[in-house]
Amino acid sequence: MIKTEFRCNCPISTALDVVGDKWSIIIIKQMLIEGKKTFKDFIESDEAIATNILSSRLKMLEEFNIITKGKLPENKKTNIYTLTDKGLDLTPVIVELSLWSDKHMRDFHPELYSGDAIDVIRQDKTTYIKNTIGKYRAEHSKV
Question: Which CATH architecture has domain 19-140?
Fold first, then answer.
């Protein structure tokens, strides 16, 4: 069990103590939006997370019940990671970070993603959040 010392009693600081490093929220985004679920999936991503950091973050996220670790029925060797309801509750945070970045960071990063997904989020973020969570649950209820 991870022994976590929280900085203070502030709800924002406490949340950031758990998901405030750049890798934790990226892992959650990759699971939710990109469908990543195995260690290999994460390692092969564009974000290029180091294996030791990935291992550490997956373990921490699991210990805080943001993700669960299991095995695929057809492959008992490979760990599969799945978001819990607690992890899925971070969907609005990920959506808001996307919108904020789209609005404020494009001048600094002109190659920033500007495809259909961000257009859908801009048009109706509430429906996007609901649909994203629903899709994730539907796809992972089979596992």
Answer: Orthogonal Bundle (1.10)
